[in-house]
Amino acid sequence: MKIAIVGAGAIGAFLGAKLALSGEDVYLIARGAHLQAMQTHGVQVKSPEGDFEAHPNATDDYESVGPVDFVFLTVKAHSLTEIAPQIAPLLGPETAVVSAQNGIPWWYFHSHGGPFDGTAIESVDPGGVVAQAIDPSRIIGCIIYPSTVIVQPGVIEHIEGNRFSIGELDGTSSDRCKTLAAALIGAGLKAPIRSRIRHDLWVKLLGNVVFNPMSALTGATLEEMATHPESSAIARAVMAEADEVAVALGIRLPLTIDQRMDGARKVGVHKTSMLQDLESGRPMELESVVGVVIELGEKLGLPMPHTRTLYSCTRLLSQVRAN
């Protein structure tokens, strides 16, 4: 099976290496020193499950790859408006696009049903650029759980996790999902096919919506934010506001705020992805993780004062760092 992974950074290179070792025809699309290292030395993965090395194809030329069976989009959400129009050479008549961004994705209301069916979300797809470039019928939703980092170009540290939950937007268990799951499982990964992929998105988002921006503002770890009296009170308030949005959209989460806070505490001394991006000078995924929740709250008539405050301060931080 021919698979392209667009934005083959830490997660994408890890995924591509696993798939390549299992015999899939993998093309990593990347750029810069990381691309050059992968072209020269392959992908080296350091993992608690055992170190390994793989040599998938690596390029920055979409045309040279041509149509594939599956395209994984592992770029950050804010990069999609630039990347989406470039992937056309990868798309054949039956190509599925696996959307693996954090937060609420641009396709959220496609095949959603109800009063918001087909609604565009401006915060994650300004001007509808992504929706114009990628037919939503191609999309398979994906939630990434592994934690990985690039320790040097071409070298990935796999910290933990191996689950890639996938699901059709209409909740069906399609042949293409079964084919994709089989490939991922064959590569030694977990790939449950979920009938309610949006539900799973919200479960992950409930923590990210508060801990990501709060960590960027404070530099604190998950354990520190979950146990500090004042910050934990703010975290609970933001989670309650996000949960209210989810409930209004028909999502009832299977865990309480207390359970989510306790889970963050147990993770311990861990830096969120947003804090890591800030410290590395990379743009933060603020809109897809926080701004989008506020936009949805506005559509539902919910004020969300705590979330707005956290978002506004983090957005200002981003602008100050950029100057």
What does the model show?
This protein is of the alpha/beta class and 323 residues long. It has 2 domains: 2-195, 3-Layer(aba) Sandwich (Rossmann fold), CATH 3.40.50.720; 199-318, N-(1-d-carboxylethyl)-l-norvaline Dehydrogenase, domain 2 (Orthogonal Bundle), CATH 1.10.1040. It has 13 helices and 11 strands. It has helices spanning 10-21, 32-41, 62-65, 80-83, 129-133, 175-186, 197-218, 222-227, 229-248, 257-267, 273-279, 286-300, 305-322; strands spanning 2-6, 25-29, 43-46, 52-54, 57-59, 68-73, 91-99, 139-144, 147-152, 155-160, 164-168. It has a 7-stranded mixed sheet with strand order 5-2-1-6-7-8-11. Strands 4-3-10-9 form a 4-stranded mixed sheet. Strand 6, helix 4 (80-83) and strand 7 (91-99) form a beta-alpha-beta unit. Helix 7 (197-218) packs antiparallel against helix 9 (229-248) and helix 7 packs across helix 11. The longest helix has 22 residues, at 197-218. The chain is globular, with a radius of gyration of 19 Å. It starts with a strand and ends with a helix.
How many domains is the backbone divided into? Answer: 2
CATH homology superfamily of the largest domain: NAD(P)-binding Rossmann-like Domain
The first-level CATH class of the largest domain is given as Alpha Beta
For the secondary structure, the number of strands is: 11
CATH third-level topology of the largest domain = Rossmann fold
Number of helices: 13
Q: Which structural class is indicated by helix and strand composition?
A: alpha/beta
Stretches where pLDDT is under 50 for at least 5 consecutive residues are none
Distance between the termini: 45 Å
**Strand arrangement in the largest pleated sheet:** 5-2-1-6-7-8-11
